[in-house]
Write a structure and sequence with these properties.
The structure holds 2 protein chains of 2 kinds. Chain A is about 35% helix and about 20% strand. Chain A is of the alpha+beta class. The chains are: A alpha+beta, B alpha+beta. Chains A and B meet through β10, α8, α9, α11 and α17 of A and β8, α6, α7, α8 and β17 of B. The structure holds flavin-adenine dinucleotide. Flavin-adenine dinucleotide binds next to β4, α6 and β11 of chain A.
Chain lengths: ~475, ~400
Amino acid sequence: MIPLPAPKPEVLAAREQIVAALRALVPGDGVISEALRLKPYETDGLSAYRQPPMAVVLPNTTEQVAAVLKYCNEKGVRVVPRGAGTSLSGGALPLADAVVMGLMRMNRIKEVDYENRLAVVEAGVTNLGITKHVEADGFFYAPDPSSQLACMIGGNVMMNSGGAHCLKYGVTANNLLGLTFVTIEGEIVQIGGRHLDATGYDWLGLITGSEGQLGVVTEVTVRILRGPEGARAMLAAFDSIEVAGQAVDAIIGSGIIPVALEFMDRPCIHACEAFAHAGYPLDAEAMLIIEVEGNVEEQDRLLGWIKEICNRFNPISLKVAETAEESLAIWKGRKGAFGAVGRISPDYLCMDGTIPTGELPFVLKRIGEMSQSYGLQVANVFHAGDGNLHPLIMFDANNEASFHAAENFGADILKLCVEVGGCLTGEHGVGIEKRDLMTVQFTPPELDQMRDLKAAFDPQWLLNPAKVFPLEGNAAFDIQPVNQAA
Amino acid sequence: MNCSTIIPKTEAAVASTVQSASSLGISLAIEGNGSKRGLLRPMRAGRTISLRGLSGITLYHPTELIISAQAGTPLPEIEAALAEHGQHLIAEPPALTAMFGAERPATIGGIVATNLSGPRRIAWGAMRDHVMGIRAVNGKGEVFRSGGRVLKNVTGLDLCKLLTGSHGTLGIITEVTLKVLPAPQATGTVSIRVASLEQGVAALSAGLGSPFSVTGAALIPEDGGGIAHLRIEDFEQSVAYRCGKLREALARFGEATVQADSAALWQGIREATTLGATAEEAIWRLSVQPSAAPAVVAALRAAGGSKFLLDWGGGLIWVAAVASAEAHAAVVAAALAAQGSYTLFRAPEDLRASVPVMPDEPRALTAIARRVKAVMDPCGLLNPGRMRAGQ
Ligand SMILES: Cc1cc2nc3c(=O)[nH]c(=O)nc-3n(C[C@H](O)[C@H](O)[C@H](O)COP(=O)(O)OP(=O)(O)OC[C@H]3O[C@@H](n4cnc5c(N)ncnc54)[C@H](O)[C@@H]3O)c2cc1C
């Protein structure tokens, strides 16, 4: 159950004219208005919430994006930008009176410049598409969300997405140089450029992670990096979560920064092993996947040190990949974690809080207790080096009570994250899912200041308006309580 | 500079100072230790507020890679605390106390407010990339927070980035939380004498495009050419191995030497003392795409000759020249021709007051900036006009 702003009656009444006007602005087959063809756009990666939009527009160029936004701004029509629709926080969920603006047709790689180590790509290019385009030359685009096959760079920018390797390479915000950005007024603006750290206010930093609230991104200039000589993973399993946490602290305390340091708990290990047959130890309470980079000797040396450190914590098993294939096998289970949990329970909520890593044993213990009291299973997988948790709460979507329990369980986990000094979301964004929890992390004046900043870009609150900021206390619209649960 | 300086001891006192300044309509110049008073445009503010009374590390968890400090904490204090645990500030921020002839050390609040980063920026990100949390007081005297004390956080708009590099014009930073990393065990520098700047930038690009994790790439012009320096930082054996590989990979650019003891070299590049500017000269800092750097330098040489220092693979150009409007116009023209940006970094007050110290923004952004400023500082009290008129 999630309250949404009441649709504007005058917009719904003008639907025919609006669709006709959009068709004139984006000729060809770029406008969708038939109910059946709107269906694929009614939800995103958080499929528990659904709402078909009034229409979908699929522009081909920045100029078309600008023309559509200008028109919508003049007519007071709400716009929900959309990339691949993989958001796990409902960031791309439509509104009944909104036009969904899909950027997927803007999928050209416009330029690759190895001397300056950058690529200029349109917003609809997939994350993996960038790396695929440059990998033959030894380069890659660093942020690697697990959804990288599908998710698009425009969506990555708007969610400031991370990945398994961001302990070393940073998240999306750390890998950008510039944007082509279109305001709701239809102005096309160049933010940043091909150089580092442009002077003046850091618009690039403010827009990144703004979840479609400030404008539409049509083009992105990303940094591309030369890959290392090689990389190899190892696996370390322990008989308690506390001890695994201590091992993580000891590794980081030793001065080694692995490129990836992933953590799985027992339910997650079991789910992934059943799915991927990666050879994970089924008797472990916690397992780490640790990856290092360099040439073979460097890898051997680092993995040797890490092994030595892990040995101090009585691991139940330690397995160092000897080859690239063995590395892939170790990763296979982790990369498929969501899918694996999906096989146990077709419906699950993927949470995304961050905690100070020292709080890990306490937080996982509390999550275990909540799982008992809610009567719902949970599997934990997360980025251990940076404390970004992904508890996967399993529920039954055919049972309304089970869904509500899962929602409440999730909210309790996120509140716990804030309580121990962490935050509501590490990489999936606030979207619609955590919107009403924002009051747990921010004071009313802090929220008002953020709302005012949103309004500085979008005075009429037309861009993705039901997301991120609690509706309550927002004078920009009437609230209509609706039950959106599927 | 201004007649009276207020030195609050607590964040609440900062807030009440702003509230009373706001009710009296008195504008505020904001500083830490005032080491960068000479940066950007001169201001005419009613009072100066110094953050140096808010000093001290408030949280440091080495294994969580996180440190928090009040804004007035001196940079050397933070660096010393980190060094005790074998860690460092990732962006290697320059203090620039020598450049500005400052008597007191730079404070961490000032470093964040100016988004200053050193040579390691090219590999590991800028100061703005490592500000995980911030506390600040806006122009209405309200305390607000953004981010937090964890390494990954996308909750709400990222005001840490908005405030970093805003030169105190949107809020008074009272506390920052930074991501830190283990300091490397060893450093090695591969140096190559090159016959031209084109060759030098190409050598830096080749090094940065190699798989050997170059963490510093600077070019010191000499005669027609210069010396390209590429730094590797890691565990000892890795540094030895990679310096050797890098030297082979760059053989086509010239004979390379490898030196282990290069701390002074990189310190000079970080603080731009290598530039060799005299006390009378003005100093500019340009950011361009690296391949454009040789043309920028050539244009400025043609316009009358200056001193140069290139960092960030060629993307950062420090320029020193006679402090005149003509010299400034030449820098502006060269930076804009290269589609880059510039900052008039140090100059006598009359020059800083009479020319734009940074490029104008596109019209649509100017309008948004005005509205953003109105949200954060509606009466325009904070560092009035430090960046541009109205900002
Ligand atoms: C299986 C799975 C695994 C995932 N793993 C990760 C992970 O490891 N790390 C991680 O960070 N995330 C992960 N995600 C979440 C998701 O993939 C990311 O948030 C991703 O960046 C969304 O990209 P998208 O193209 O699908 O954007 P969408 O879901 O279409 O949109 C996301 C938000 O951005 C806005 N938006 C999209 N494009 C634009 C644009 N061009 N201009 C303005 N606004 C725009 C939308 O309005 C929406 O608010 C995962 C999701 C799934 C389903």
